[in-house]
Amino acid sequence: MTPATESRRVRWTDLLLPLTPLYAVAVRTRAAAYERGLCLSRRLPVPVVSVGNLVLGGAGKTPTTVALVRDLIRRGRRPAVLTRGWGRTTADPLVLVGPDPGYRPQQAGDEPLELALRLPGVPVVVDGDRRRGGEEAIRRGADVLLLDDGFQHLGLARDLDLVVVDAGDPWGGGRLPPRGRLREPLSALGRASAVLVTKVPSPHQEAVAAIAKEVHRHAPGLPVLAARLEAVRMRTPDGVESIGTLAGGKVLAFAGVGRPAGFFQLLEEAGAEVVARRSFPDHHLYTAAEVDELTQTAAAAGARLVTTGKDAVKLPPRAPVWVVEVEMVAVTGSWERLWSLLDEARA
């Protein structure tokens, strides 16, 4: 970006600054309307767990949802996922049951497709009306519902409100738009049941303690849990490979996620030599020309072309791309503590 371009960008941002107080008032007023009963939150007959965040993109909500669903299955439950399918071009309700639900990202959204792929047999209900989607999931046998990206979706009552925070960028600049990426002021943490600090380093204690200190300024006593993001395997056009295959090899990494830097760092931690990084906007739909350019650039550099699971569902079939599968792994009994909070809320 040239200095002149940067100057223009700053001036436009400055023009939007007077809207920040109006945005803050709007989100606070909306939350207060639900809290005081002026707007109704509809309750479903099964437990509802919301996985959401305060920052636009990049906190790890999808791998957290996958981890919680798998843990619930291990405990004998029948979970389903409710999601709106951000960015899709149709409002028709859909139910995806992977691993091959037969829809394109434009129809279902990229995150629902990834969830269906990662959670075979689990209903992923894509519907902007979360209550209606929950009723459909219950008809299909679900006895617990995971509300994906649900912290701001106040129309559906939840028994557990989990706020996911990225250890590498917890507060998105600490400001509301346009200068920051906070969806709501940090005081909104008062609605939460718990905070999960994701992508924690090793050792994690110092990073979690710093975030917990800030959390407790706004929500004293709120439980703060932790989880780390691990790259566990590679999906290639020829099958599944160990993540260790990356060690010592050259890769061209590209990602259209909330915080691509976190993905690039994960590759380096796996031992890959990241010779080039390409960042795209969150939820980016790739064109054939973009995939061809990436493929040619990687070949010229003698590197493998590597991306995320969320990006992979938007690529052409059999694209010469290696896909990193990640898992969110609980630190120090975090899932046990989370389910105990749910039991307490349901008692």
Task: Describe how the helices and strands are arranged.
Blueprint: H1 3-16, H2 19-35, E1 48-52, H3 61-74, E2 79-83, E3 94-96, H4 105-108, H5 110-118, E4 124-126, H6 130-139, E5 144-148, E6 160-166, E7 194-198, H7 205-218, E8 224-236, E9 239-242, E10 250-255, H8 260-269, E11 273-279, H9 288-300, E12 304-308, H10 309-312, E13 322-331, H11 334-346
Parallel strand pairs: 1-5, 1-6, 2-4, 2-5, 6-7, 7-8, 10-11, 10-12, 12-13
Antiparallel strand pairs: 3-4, 8-9, 8-13
Low-confidence segments, given as residue ranges, are: 1-9
Q: What is the element string, with H for helices and E for strands?
A: HHEHEEHHEHEEEHEEEHEHEHEH
Mean pLDDT: 91
The structural domain count equals 2
**Gyration radius over CA:** 20 Å
First CA to last CA: what distance? 56 Å
Per the CATH scheme, the topology name of the largest domain is: Rossmann fold
**Helix-strand category:** alpha/beta
Number of strand segments? 13
Most strands sheet = 13 strands, mixed
The oligomeric state is: single chain
The CATH class of the largest domain: Alpha Beta
- Looking at the overall shape, the CATH architecture of the largest domain is 3-Layer(aba) Sandwich
β-strand amount: 15-25%
- The helicity comes to 25-40%
CATH H-level superfamily of the largest domain: P-loop containing nucleotide triphosphate hydrolases
